Every structure is written in structure tokens, then in C-alpha cells.
């Protein structure tokens, strides 16, 4: 079983770094589920709900229903830590609520004495500067995380399965995440902990700046780009309420590609003053999928009117009628290769259980879909799929329709892995 905690927020106002980590957490969870893992996503109650409700992104970047909400009482997690032999001091500082003293954990001793349990490679991954870690019961961010670890451990015990927590964490707080991982080890030694480091997001206009970009400003900027593009194409009618869902879904696609098209450990540089080619990759994929859905609708309408006969079953389709080079390129390089691509995203995860830091190839899905749509768009502009209803033309038309159906399925699966809702029309 695998638990993917979302990022614990150090501030109420969400940053783009945090947004990227959240999108990557959901994407990693989807990749793990696709590859057969039993996945639970933990949504922290502290900070997260307030940050989401305070921004316009609440309806866009929502958590899936299979979330793990911590039920362990803070006192239980606190007491488990307090009983550990690695708690080297209890300060006189008192919390304001339950008057429980602050705990100081000797992380160096934890690492030194747990090599056998964690493994040499895992221990070596931890920062050498880890020393004392102070925890008190009123630190809701940390305590909720430890409560979730405890709950997940109980869940694994109930189902007799080994648990593994994958922390998708911004590199801004990678040191704090290591502290929390070791504290989690004291709560439940049987749970493996992994960290997927997420590169920072910077504004290209402020090279070298360490200022965290605000997610709300980022979202509004790209929504303006999407809205402007729709106004140019469809006119002022796009300001009507009926267009809101499409504008927001397209904005989510654009943002997802901006943040996930780069390998997760690498830095992302944004130029929010203009719309780059990468900015529009998400909407390009959405448009191509909607175009295939429209093609299918047109065919079904023609069948209902008696213009075409119904589509035969696949076993009756003559695929040798597909003679165009791009048709076989689409089939072999994209449709047939997609399942292996999804598996390849987790190669290092599956091979490196003894390592703290994991590399998951989260950028591959977005890039794959973009590349497939480039080939598809070229093919679709050049080849007419719905032909005249003549007996000698029907076999190739039916074969092409099945090819387009398979592409449509791959695009839908890919968008699902990216936590994006497909649009039936654009």
C-alpha cells in the first residue's frame, strides 16, 4: 500500500511551488494506481482547506474522493513520540492549549541506530545537518502529518500489507520533510518513507530571485491568456456563464502543462507576461481530443440518419487498409506504446525501495500526449476520415475510425493521469 500525502502548507496563501507539488502528488498517485498499487491520498485539514477556499482554484485543483483523513488524536501521536528513547529533552515551554511540553528528538541518534531498519543507502540520503527536532502538540502541520502516518500504519496492519509513504515535496522545505520523515519513523517503524523532490518555480523576469510566486496571481494570469484566446476565436459570448466551465478546464490544462511538462526535480521558469508554446500544449491536447469526440458524434449521427452503416466489430476490421505512414506511426509509437510508457514512469520507484529520494518520471505523460497530438493534428489535416458511403471506401473509413477511437482512449487515459477532465467539445 502507498500513501501520498499532499504538501503541508507553511503559509495560508498558496504559492506556485505548493501548487506544483499538489499537482505532482495527484499525478504520482494516479501513476501508482495505474501500476497496481493500492493508493491512499492524505489531505491535511490544517491550512489546505483555507488556502483552497480563499482562491479561485478551489473548483479546479480538488482532491480525489479516495483521501485519507487523519483520525488519530494528536495526543496519541504526541504520547508515542514522548515515550521514544530518542526524545533527549523536554523543555519548559508550554503550549497554549493542552499544556503539553515541547519534545526534542535526537535525529542523529535515530539515524545512527536505525541503519539496519532503514538501510545504509537510505540513511546516507539524509542531510548531515540533521540534529535536534523540536515538536510540540500545537504545531498542527507536523502533528497532522504524524497522525496520518499512524492511521496509515494501522490501515496497513489491518490489511496485512507493507506500507510506503511517498512525500512529494518542494525543495524549499526538503530539510523539514526529512525531519518529519524521521519523526514518522518513530511513530511507525514499519512504514517506508520516500521523498520526491520538486524543483522550484521562478519568474523568468527575476533571475536568481528566491521570492515564492503566489498561485492565485499565477492562475489569474493564465486564465486571462485562455479567455483572450477564446474571445479572439469565438467573440464576446465567451464571457457568458455557459462558457465558464470550459475556460476553467482549459486554464487547468494550460497550468498543468506549465508545471508538469518539466521533470519534477528540475526548476520551472515562468514567463507570465506572454503565452509560450509550452503554455498552449495543454489546450492543444484538449482541442485534439474534443475534435476526435466531434468526429465520433458526426459519424454516429450519420449512422442514425442512414447515411452510413453501423461500425462493424473490431474483429471484422481490415487493418491492412491503413497504408498511410502516419497511421502506423500513431498506432505503434503512441497507441501501443502508452501502457509501457506509464510503467516506465515508475522504474526507479520500483527498483529503489532502499532509497529515501525517489525519481519518478512525471514529465513523460504530458510530453507524450503533446507529441502524439502533433502527429495526430498533421494526419487529421491531411486525411479525410469520413468519406462517401460507397462500398469500396467503407473498409478504410471503418479502420480509420477505430484508429481514432484508440487515440481518443489514450488521450482520455493520459488526461486522467494528469487529473484533468476531458472536454467533449471546444
Quick take:
With 426 residues, the protein is α/β, with parallel strands linked by helices. It has helices at residues 16-34, 48-53, 74-82, 107-113, 115-118, 120-125, 140-159, 174-187, 215-234, 244-260, 281-304, 325-335, 338-344, 347-351, 363-382, 394-417; strands spanning 2-5, 39-42, 67-68, 87-94, 101-106, 132-135, 164-170, 192-198, 201-203, 268-270.
Structural notes for this entry:
This protein has 16 helices and 10 strands. It has 426 residues and is α/β, with parallel strands linked by helices. The strands form 3 sheets. The chain has a 5-stranded parallel β-sheet with strand order 3-2-1-7-8. Strands 4-5-6 form a 3-stranded antiparallel β-sheet. A two-stranded parallel sheet has the order 9-10. Strand 1, helix 1 and strand 2 (39-42) form a beta-alpha-beta unit. The longest helix is centred in the C-terminal third of the chain and has 24 residues, at 281-304. The protein is elongated, with a radius of gyration of 25 Å. The chain starts with a strand and ends in a 9-residue tail after the last helix.
